[in-house]
Amino acid sequence: MTKFNVQSFLFAFIVLIFAVMGRRGSHDASLVTSPHIVSRTSLAEASVPFMAESEHLESPHSRAVPESAEAAVEGLPRKSKVPFIDLGISAKSILIQELNVTTPLYASGERERWPLASITKLVSALVARDMFDAETLIGITREAVETPGTSGFFKEGEIFTTHDLIKAALGISSNDAAEALARGAGYNTFIEAMQKKAEHIGMVRTSFFDPTGLSSLNLSTAEDLEKLTSYILKEAPDLFLITRTPNIFITEQTTGKGRLIQNNNLFAGEPWFVGGKTGYTDDAQGNLLSIVSYGNRRFMVVILGSTDRYEETKKTLEWIQSYYL
Q1: Res. 304: pLDDT tops 90
Q2: pTM
Q3: What residue ranges do the domains of the chain occupy?
């Protein structure tokens, strides 16, 4: 082969190589630019953040309790807020909070003052403990018997220990028992002590005008009730023990006869119920403060101004179990 023929052959071979490479490059470019084709590598890379987010949303148990409602939505399924809104809660004020956690899981109207009704008696019980020994004897006065309500079936002249009257006031929400405690200390002195106790606890938006809660001027907020709950659990947990006991015995001291009274809280006796207090007046409607326990975690639910306090509390407990446990 002549030198010219060799050079021609090499030139043709090089041209052929460039032609093949150009065609292949054009084919690869179509794979990248086509909107209908995604390479295997691209799909794998695109799925990584999606899968990580999906696992994060479906595993709320791996997260600490959110520090705010916004954090709850970020850390839990988006529906974490929607089902609660759809529960049909009628209450004027709602507070759901894990105890020992500063920010509520849910709050609505928590700073609005509302008639306390018989939730008042939690503070009455605290003040009675401060003023009397548990075995101090207190007589049932005419004024106590004339207080509206017959819970406990007390009669004028009967005598009970302070502890038994506290049990009646908290367990069956006896107005007569709460009134007897106040009369035993001096009515005005007792009410003043209730106000000072609230201030000591930090209940800055709370006021008291009677020991029973019959007065609509006994006002507080769900936020203040959280402070009261934390205080009782720390300083006087036996009071909540009374409120969770289904059947309560008291003894009239003159005759020595025992009396069985049934707790008026429908949750009393339930294994998850730590304690709480009911309350109802025409002005307040249905009030209910409840502390529940799931394992080693405790939650407080405050419902004020409800048309169905127990059913609405149950709905909130289901919400807690679904999204925070």
Answers
A1: yes
A2: 0.75
A3: 74-324
